[in-house]
Amino acid sequence: MAESTFFRSEEMSLIQLYIPAEVAQPTVAELGELGLVQFRDLNPDVNAFQRAFVGEIRRFDEMERQLRFFTSQIEKAEIRIHSSHTPAYPSRARSRQELDDLEERLSEHETRLLQMNNSHETMQRRYLELTELKHVLRETADFFQEAASHQEDIRHSFDEPTAPLLDDLETGPSQESQGAGLQLGNVTGVIPRSKMQTFERILWRSLRGNLYMNTAEIEELVIDPSTDVVVEKNVFIIFAHGREILNKIRKIAESLGATLYPIDSSMDRRREALMDTMRHIEEFNSVLINTTQTRRQELMRISENLAAWMTIVRKEKATYHTMNLFNYDINRKCLIAEGWCPTNEINNIQIALRAVTDRSGSMVPSILNELRTHKEPPTFHKTNKFTSGFQAIVDAYGMARYREVNPGLFTIISFPFLFAVMFGDVGHGLLVLIAAAWLVMNERKLARVDGEMFQMVFGGRYILLLMGAFSIFTGLMYNDIFSKALPLFQTGWHFNVPEGYDGKTILVAEPTGHTYLFGIDYTWHGTENYLLFTNSYKMKMSVILGVVHMSFGLCMLYYNAKFFRKPIDIYGGFIPQILFMECLFGYLTLMILYKWSVNWFETDAAGHAIRNSPPSLLNTMIYMFLSPGTINEGDRLYAGQGFIQGVLVLIALICIPWMLFLKPYYLKWEHNQARSMGYHQPSENHVRISTDSNHSEEAGGAVVAEDVEHEEEFDFGEEMIHQVIHTIDFSLSCISNTASYLRLWALSLAHAQLSEVLWSMTLGMAWSFTGTFGAIMTVIMFAGWFSLTVGILIGMEGLSAFLHALRLHWVEFNNKFYQATGYPFEPFSFSAILAATDSV
């Protein structure tokens, strides 16, 4: 049994379970609570609707629908749903009787709630009608009086399509209308205010103005009982003559959603109707209050257990979904399951199986068999709250192949460090560290905060913590705190400033013989050649970090080949690749370190230079290939440089055909050897089968993995093409990937310069003023400086550095050894199922 480490994924075992039918449900539920088994589908050809437990799943679907209905009603009533984490609902499988009782209880609650909803909606609708009628009766009293005073002004229909809705009252009524003695009818009702303009326009066009209309707004809020939405409405009354015209008006009003109320023309009857309506409103109001209180009490009783019921139903539904993956042995009356689990957890699974058998009182225990198989298991990295964020970065690139080296272990250090190289500033790093520390210290409380963006940041709180800490370290190395120097130790340079210095003449610092203890000497800040110095320093540092990072990745290729017992990957892959890398770029790194360690301006006793001027390493690398073995005296770095460089170029050139031909021809030789011994494939690529040979198909025993992995026949031409592509890709990527690490230099330079510009344009400008105005400007500029620092230098620049560090890990580091061809371990786990359901 392998020890559990983060260096490789957990060792997995394929297990077979024989579960007696009478304890199948509690056994699977117990495994769901444990969350350690990823079950395989043993019925891949069976339709989902033809599986054994479809009826149970439909039953729980119906119960889940009822619970969703309760949830919507409770949320609409603004009632708090109680948490399910109470002692009354422990984590255990429910018996059939308990599930039957729960189903009956949910049905009773649904029936009562539907009846109350229907009754409540009916009464609300009737209450709405009475309220609208009250406003109609009140407003139409004025309408009738106005209509009576202007009855002679209501005009007949005209043939002209452009006739106005009403005659101009100042022109006086027509002769026809004066002699007609019209008997007017009316249409009264309520219509949504949003449709009022459309209503008037349609009436004018269809009736050609043969009507008299008046409207009034209802100030009281009107709630639609079917949608619970507040609707603004208007009361209207339309006077016209003729039965056909009145019917036409009614149809138009009803088509636009108006509610019509017949109003008597008698004032006394209208007064009586208003009094009756007010009395009915008071009666309905009291009944509505009682009904609402009863319904709310019912919802509160449901809310006390709703979360627990939802958890029970989801667990049971997931249990039966999982049981549909099993096979049923008719003769043994048991379910046969197969799945993957961590080898270290087999004992815990057996303990759980025995516990279920003891609780249920069953005489037949569940049986667990560990199967021997060559099928590729899923990949499972055991993580905690600290390592999960770093592992997520790796998994986003691709899931590791089973048991290959896990880059997540190294990412814990390398990712925040490379980020900090680009983000290095003591002040900015301190702000990030404080924010991350706050997230870590309040993680229990903040874990319940909703919001996708916040949860993304919260999940990476430990990444932020290390990013802030490493940024402080690199800021100390750069001697930068908000773009200013940090004089921590004694400087190694001294400026001799003459008396009466005007500040325009360039001064040259003289060494004091003292070496600054840590990082860059603070005296460099503000000097004319500071940018030139830091550019050279950070560029060479980026190359060194890149070569070390990639070389470390190549070393992981050796550990993978050794673990999987593939010596050809060592002799035909790792050795030529590491030689090619180190002969070129490892040599460049050594030249950089050597150049840093030599005092090129050292003189002898006579004051003459001992060495030539420091050579350009870029030219050295170019002429190393153009003229190997030849070095100009002015470009000489050390004695014997020409010979060493010639040998290194020769080794690098030899490595290319070494990578290109050795592995394909070795695989061809291995394939021929296997064929000569009677095998169709080499022994390490044999067919992978796991089966139960003790039982016949009639007994239902042949249920373990019989999936034969058909591997392709060895094709030397295809293997050769693959190796050519790999060799070209590696050779070119060594150059491009090394150059890619120069982004460390570029972003570090950009971050430092942007920080300096921001300081000089805000606080630097404010401190140029004095007195009260200077104090006011300091306060204003400090607020602007801090806001821009957090928003731009930490927010945007931090995100940019994060993405570039991500790219360096995914492309430059991982492609040296990380295959990422595996598939994740997704066990049957109630906690994962409930978490995924809650996040939807």
Structure, explained:
The protein starts with 11 loop residues before the first strand and ends with a helix. Strands 1, 2, 9, 10 and 11 form a 5-stranded antiparallel beta sheet that branches. Strands 4-7-3-8 form a 4-stranded antiparallel beta sheet, sandwiched between helices. Strands 5-6 form a two-stranded antiparallel ribbon. It has 23 helices and 13 strands. The protein has 840 residues and is an alpha+beta fold. A hairpin with a 4-residue loop joins strand 5 and strand 6. The protein is extended and about 130 Å long. About 7% of the residues have low confidence. One of its GO terms (molecular function) is proton-transporting ATPase activity, rotational mechanism. One of its GO terms (cellular component) is vacuolar proton-transporting V-type ATPase, V0 domain.
Q: In terms of topology, how is this protein built?
A:
Elements: E1 12-20, H1 24-34, E2 38-39, H2 54-76, H3 96-149, H4 175-180, E3 185-192, H5 196-207, E4 212-217, E5 222-224, E6 229-231, E7 233-240, H6 243-255, E8 259-260, H7 267-323, E9 327-329, E10 334-342, H8 346-360, E11 367-371, H9 388-397, H10 408-423, H11 426-441, H12 443-446, H13 452-459, H14 461-478, E12 493-494, E13 510-511, H15 530-563, H16 567-597, H17 617-626, H18 641-676, H19 716-740, H20 743-761, H21 763-766, H22 771-813, H23 830-839
Antiparallel strand pairs: 1-10, 1-11, 2-10, 3-7, 3-8, 4-7, 5-6, 9-10, 12-13
Helix pairs in contact: 1-7, 1-8, 2-3, 2-7, 3-7, 5-6, 9-10, 10-14, 10-20, 10-22, 11-14, 15-16, 15-19, 15-20, 16-18, 16-19, 18-19, 20-22
